[in-house]
Specification:
Keywords: ATP-binding, Cell membrane, Kinase, Lipid biosynthesis, Lipid metabolism, Magnesium, Membrane, Metal-binding, Nucleotide-binding, Phospholipid biosynthesis, Phospholipid metabolism, Transferase, Transmembrane, Transmembrane helix. With about 130 residues, the chain is an all-alpha fold. The protein is built from four helices and no strands.
């Protein structure tokens, strides 16, 4: 995990229209690339691919597949927020503290809840096929 200060502290000019949309897409792509550096996120991608493959093989409905994809995207968003919390806490509170531990534990719990939800939904979808 890398914690680096921003190189330029000047405020960026507010973009509008298509420039704003393109800048937002670049920021999102940068966030995804940063998140791909996290082992947990790569493991969640593998889990998601396995769940989707299993549901496809089982022949679940397109609606069930769509729900699983949405749940996986929510999991990815939670992992991104958890990583952001960890980065901020490490920057603000580099020493070991109860505050830092609790903030990180809460982010981790949010990810755990979504992992459980994803697995639970996949199991339910498979059981409905039996």
């Amino acid at each position: 995990m890398s914690i680096e200060a921003p190189a330029d502290r000047r405020a960026h000019a507010k973009l509008r229209g298509i420039d704003h949309l393109l800048a937002s897409a670049r920021y999102s792509a940068a966030g995804l690339l940063r998140l791909l550096g996290e082992t947990a996120f790569r493991q969640e991608i593998m889990l998601g691919a396995a769940l989707l493959a299993l549901l496809l093989i089982a022949g679940v409905s397109p609606a069930m597949l769509l729900i699983q994809v949405v749940l996986l995207l929510i999991l990815a968003a939670a992992e991104a927020l958890n990583t952001a919390i960890e980065l901020i806490v490490d920057r603000v509170s580099p020493e070991i503290s109860t505050f830092a531990k609790q903030a990180k534990d809460l982010g981790s719990f949010a990810v755990f809840c979504l992992l459980a939800g994803n697995l639970g939904f996949a199991v339910a979808a498979l059981l409905l096929r039996i």
